[in-house]
Every structure is written in C-alpha cells, then in structure tokens.
Amino acid sequence: MSTRREKARALFRERCYTLIRYSLMVLLVLFLASLRCSPWPKDGQTGLNAAADDNQSEYTAGDPYPTASPGLDGGSLSANAASGVSGSGESNLTQISLDVRDASMLDVLSVLAIKMNSPIIFLEEPRAVTFKVDNLTPLTAFQLLLQKEGLDYLVVGGNYLVGERERLQQDFYNRMILTRYNLQFISAQTLRGLIEELAIPLQSITLEANPQAIWVQGTPLSLGKIKELIDAVDRSENADPVEGASAIFIYYLNNTVASEMAERLSVFEFPDVRTVVLSYPEFTRQLLVMTPAALETRVRNAIRELDGIQPMLRIPVASANGQNARSKLEAQQHLLAELTDIPLSAMHISDDLSGLGDHDHGALILWVEATPDNINLIKNMVDIIRFIEEP
Questions:
Q1: Considering the entire predicted model, what is its pTM?
Q2: For residue 175, what are the CA distances in angstroms to 4, 156, 179, 180, 219?
C-alpha cells in the first residue's frame, strides 16, 4: 500500500516539474521575441537621433531633401512631444530645441521636415548655418531659421518650397493666395502707407466703396507680418478722423442706476460724449450714449468697468415709533421688495431702540444690506412713499 502511494507522489512531482519547465520555456521565447521587435539605437545615437534615422528610412533616394548627416554633430537637438498625440497632429504640438553650428542647411531642413511631417524642397545652393532655438514648435523654428537666412517659403501641395523671396515670386506667383483683412478703426489707405514704410514685400489692393477692407498677396511670412501690423495699429486710439461720424447706443446697466452712471462717466471727460437719462433717472438702468465712432469702444469699456459688482453696505432707510410700529415697517418692507425687486432677505427690522423692550410698538428701524446703488434706490422709493402719505 505504501509503495503505491509513493509511486503516485513521484508521478505527481514529475508532472509538476514538467509543467514548470514548459512555462519557463514559453516565457523565454516571448522575451526573445520582444527583443527582436524593439531594435536598439545605432552606436553613438540616443533619443531623437535614433528616431530621426528610423523616420528618414521612410524617404526614398529621390526625396528633395537628404537624410541627416554628420553636419549636425556640432550641435544638439531634443524634442518633447505632447502625450496622447500621434500622426500629423503631433508635429503641431511638439516643442523642439535646436542648436547647430556651421551645419549644412540641408541637414537642418531635413530634421525640421521630419518633425513637421512635411517635405521641404530647398531651391537654393546649400550653405552652412548657425542657429539656436529653445522649446519652440517645429513650424516656428522653421520660420525663424528662414528669417535669419533671408529666405521665404510657399506651401504647394503639402510641400514647403524654400528659397529667395524674388525667386518664389517669379516662379510661383500663381501659387500665392489672395487674402482679405477687415479693419475696424484705421482705413485701408492708412494701412497701405504703413506697409510701404515698413517695406513689407507683398502686393495689395483696396476699393473706394469699402475703405475698411484690404486684399493682399504674398508669401506666408509676409502675410504673418501684415497680421502683426494690423493687431498693433488697428486700435481705437489710432482711428482715422471721419467728419460727423458718430455712434448712438443704449447701455443696459446691471448694478448701477442711469443717473449715477452718467455722473461717473463724466469724470473721464471724453470729448464730445453725451449721455441722456430717460424718465426716472434715479430708478432706470438704461443709459442713452452719443459718442464719436472712434471712441465707442473706449466708452463701452469704461461703462462696463464702472458697472461692476459693488461692495455690500448696511444702511437704515426708514423708521417707525409707537402703536403698530413693526406692522408698519413690515408693510413697507413688502412694498419695497415689490417695487425694486430687491429681496425681502436683504431688509431687516431692528429691535426696540427706546429701551422699553416692546418689539411691536417701540422705536424700530428698517435697515437694508445691499449695494450703494440699490440702497439709494430704496431710499428714493421711501421718500416717494412718504410724499404720497402726507396730506
């Protein structure tokens, strides 16, 4: 009996050892397979340089730009791509740092083309460049490099054509896009004068029937300069004087009554700006404003700032004394809430101030916790109620 048990135990141990050996062999095979699927960087390459070689292997020998060569060894290149982004969108969010000294222009453009995920065709003779940028998108680094070297570019069929500006305009003029810009304060003629003074290389046209629009044609770098110029000068303080041009609008206030806003606005002493307060200026929140068109934006901004949220104050607005004093103030409290839309929770009745401790028939005060304008509104309403109550 004991011999049969020993044989069974020996058979069980042998099967366990066989299963363990088989599991170890499977793990070893999987480990070796993973090593073959993950190639190591070449000697002397780490990080981005190895990735660059992998990407460059996708380009054929007929590509318009060569693969990276030892010309970049004089500098350093690093990149930090945003997580969760892949494909062409990654090149828009990637930030790179580039530091090259006496490197071939073709090599630098090759690296930028890989990071921009777009072919770059260099139309000029190769040259050596020294260039350094930190933490910029590939497109921005590309544009800065061209500005430094006095070059420009066009985008044709997804390809970046790089060369001298005159050559691009001569050979690819029909590829340039005609772009329209709408102006708000300055006229198109004024902008054209600024373009000529700054010698921005582009062509522009304007129409007498639409003096606030300009059409320009040029390279992407020139169009970018136009956008910067418009953002800098198309402001209200630079508005072209127009005879008799004015604006009239009604401003609906949120926290201030019209009479108070008109008084505050007068402190700014805007030239030729007038305000008209409609009926019941101490209650209405509609302010009619007449202003020169060039000042409209500044006036609107000033009103919006003055109409901001105000601090809360606690001010007594009414009182009652003697018989049924509390009932009188409670009735006033409800009436004021209905007339002004100020909630009952903002109005409070005090305890007896006479010292007799009679909370219903003593000397009581109605006080309000609200903004200064709302308190003035309630006080004006209380004065009207008293005027009506008097014989």
A1: 0.37
A2: 93, 7, 12, 16, 9
